[in-house]
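Input record (one chain):
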Amino acid sequence: MNVFLWIVQAILAAMFAMSGLEKIRQPMDALAGKYLWTHMFSGTAVRSIGVLELLGAIGLIVPAATGVAPVLTPIAATGLAIMMLLAGALHLRRKELSGLAAPGVLLVLCALVAWGRFGPYGW
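The corresponding structure, as predicted from the sequence alone:
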């Protein structure tokens, strides 16, 4: 199970890092074409979401890999799960049921990592 959790952590870290970097680096006009919800938020808010995603991605890997404060890994997973819960709520509010799949899957995977690393397979 430990190897499985590492694989899930790596996949989640890659996905959140790519998404976060995109929100940080792309102009708002380009983001509006891909993320329809961005018009509801200021540029600062969208960039902040990107920074949080990037920090969460780092938190999924670095503390556990280095052994320095490894409790930060399940905390990062919990934070990302909360972000995905809020993303799902946003899609529900906008009546975008098709937009629930990705946040739903990411929520479940983040919750799995948090459970595994806080509980039986933690450090």
